[in-house]
Write a structure and sequence with these properties.
By secondary structure, the chain is mainly α. Helices cover about 75% and strands about 0% of the residues.
Length: about 375
Amino acid sequence: MKRLIALDMLRGYALVCIMVDHMPVSVLRQGTLANFSIFDAAELFVLLSGFLVGLVWLSVQRSEGTRTAQWRFARRSFEVWRALVIGGIIMALLSAGLLAIDMNHTAVWHRYAEWVIDNPLGYLGTLATLWLQPNLLDVLAVYVVLIASAPLLVPVMQRVPLCFAAGSLVMWWFAPVLNAFIPNHRDGGLLFNPFGWQMLFYSGVAMGLYRQRIIPALMPHARLLTVLATGMVIFGSTIVIAAKFGEDALLLRNALKQVYGVIDKWPLDGTRYLAIMAASWLIAVPLANVMERLAATRPGVALQEIGRGGLWSFIICVLLSVLGDAFQMNPQDQGVLRRLLVDFWAILALWWAAAMWLRFGAPWQKARKSRAS
């Protein structure tokens, strides 16, 4: 399967945004995706993850069969779950270590640091059962559920795609009700509602599975779709930007609200979904060449490496969020320059960690899989 360098770059960009967005006093936080778009890096991460699942599934299915593809993603769901558990423990221990040396931080809740020390087995159990999803890792919890469903649901999508789409839409509509039945420490189920976010994830899967058929079918209508997609992206951006003007933009905000109704990230509202789907069309078709050129630049190559780091990059970005937040908050009242230096340090550290994984970790992992087969 040929790598799509723009896809890797966008995955890396999503991880950098996730990291910086969780550093409350970060300077670069003011320039991330969430500041000018109605959707943020979480939607980008889930959509791209679904797209990658579709690409890999198709490649494995063609070369080794459906059963092999199902087994591969069943194993992948375990790997994601394992990363969530290990990452949650390390994050809590890191937080405890920082608190022990009087380095306050707000990126992660301090109670995790207390629980992992006072009741390590209990903390491990709540992580392993998904009863608890620590903040910063909560999007990974919904990804565990979504990736675990792929071995069962992707074959259904392939057999009856239209029925699958209709069922996905119905499940999204009733997502808040369904999520409440999931046993959890929160009232109302998982923070990232899997019954809502499945629609975005499986939209990505469908794009990966059927892209060779979808794009040619849509190209005769490319101009109209580009106009509509641009309008949707601008509409979503206007909602976000108008909110920054407060009372000065109240009339515009009220007018927009009559159209979109309610914005609620956790069950994935329709406005956010439509906005990121519109953006995906713009990136995949009219801006495809621009994205390829950006991915080939030095910053683009660095983001590619971060994106190719996969779960490793995700866990490292979470830990760097906690460290970066602590460095920016201690001592208090730091200047812009010092906080900006911490931002750049965190991004460079994430890039270095991903590059080291690709050089040493990933080849070792591939060699182990090759011996096992």
